[in-house]
Design brief:
By secondary structure, the protein is of the alpha/beta class. It has four domains: 14-120, Rossmann fold (3-Layer(aba) Sandwich), CATH 3.40.50.2300; 134-308, Rossmann fold; 310-387, Helicase, Ruva Protein, domain 3 (Orthogonal Bundle); 394-442, Arc Repressor Mutant, subunit A (Orthogonal Bundle), CATH 1.10.10. Helices cover 49% and strands 13% of the residues. It has 21 helices and 15 strands. It has helices spanning 22-34, 45-54, 71-74, 76-79, 92-101, 103-131, 144-156, 173-182, 201-209, 226-230, 245-257, 283-288, 294-300, 317-332, 341-349, 355-369, 382-385, 394-397, 400-414, 419-426, 430-441, and strands at 14-18, 38-42, 59-63, 86-90, 163-166, 191-195, 210-211, 223-224, 234-238, 259-260, 269-270, 274-279, 303-306, 338-339, 374-375. The strands form five sheets. It has a five-stranded parallel sheet. A four-stranded parallel sheet has the order 2-1-3-4, with helices on both faces. α1 packs parallel to α5 (92-101) and α19 (400-414) packs across α20 (419-426). The termini are far apart. 30% of the residues are buried.
Amino acid sequence: MASPLNKIAVQGGNILIVSDQIKFRNQLRRLLSLEGYKIYEAADAGTVIAIAAKEDIEVLLCDNNLIIGDNTLFGKEPASLFTYTEIISLTSSSALANLEEDPASVLTMIHHALEKVRMQKRIQQLEQWAELPPDFDNILGESSMIREVLSLARKIAPTDAFILLQGEAGTGKEMFARAIHAASPRNRNPFIALNCNAFSKEALENELFGYKAGAFPGALRDKKGILEEVGKGSLLLNEIGEMDAGLQNKLWEALEHNEFVKPGDTRPTQLNIRIFSSTKKDLTGIVQEGKFREDLFHRLNVFTIHLPSLKDRKMDVPLLARRFMKYFAGKADVRVLGMSKDFLYHLQRYPWRGNIRELKNVMERAVIMAESDMLTEDCLPFDIRYQPTDDASISSAFDLKNVERLHLQKVLNFTGGNKAEAAKLLNIGLTTLYRKINDSSN
């Protein structure tokens, strides 16, 4: 089956199809998969919430025979999972008829929904950086590791050198790229971040290079690619290691000759751009495996900045926590003045697998949970408070009561404290859940 819109630039995206009708889900999945979308499916509200908690769902296509009026899905708590999600309601019978007669109408509707979502995200991103300017003064740290990284970043900021940022998820790769851009002569020009892992090959190519109207069926108007939009600014290619081999070739040619010809055009588009690349993987290893073009790797990798994980710079945790505490207290307009010794103790012994991003989320939660002007250990999630100490015995770590207590808290954190929803996920009665909560607190 050929795609009804062929190569129309629908930009990729994550779509969740919600219906208890298998035929409805199957037909939508087949159509949307051809357009390069990543498809998720759910037959009930519980599955919707579970998927949305883990994935960045941009468009939710729901069969209104199943979902509309179901307060467990669109109630106050689950709604927070769909901050940047467009919800499109379809009646399964009419939707199936439309798919057979005019599939392009459904795709056009999804395309417009995606454009709206991504515009909202971009506005939110701009607002965030307006609150916390992306400069070196806002990158906190007293550890030798972060000082060395900052020293290197300051030295290379005034140059046009391409930079590869390597580090675990949540270590601040994008913030470093923005700070370097802000300290460079290009700072009056745009900075754009693009996640290479969020698009299909065709969608990413269209996003980067653009096209002229008529370049292919469905290309109804000219589209500027990001390489052109950035102009004399800077572009961050997040997760560069995920880029398709063919697109790597095209990018290398463009960077090597400082120009490219977009699909449908006859004249080259000139390039004067600074490229930042980031990856949480070992890009050198990917090159050795033959999965990433070696000359492109060397072109992007004039300088490499290795960002340390938070567990390797534990002395910086209190400093970062204090910054986030003040930020979220001001945002929520609440009086929070400090953190107790026990609170800091738990923060510093926790492994922070999600790094600074995880710490930021924990501090936002702590400020919301605070019942006084001091953050105490009661404001922390259960798994942080009950993280086994280094000298804890193996038998204690695997004690069944401790394991159950930890699992209960994780489920309650997942449901935002909604005990009825937690009981459903645990497949136990609400009364049993309350009893287990009481037992775990004694």
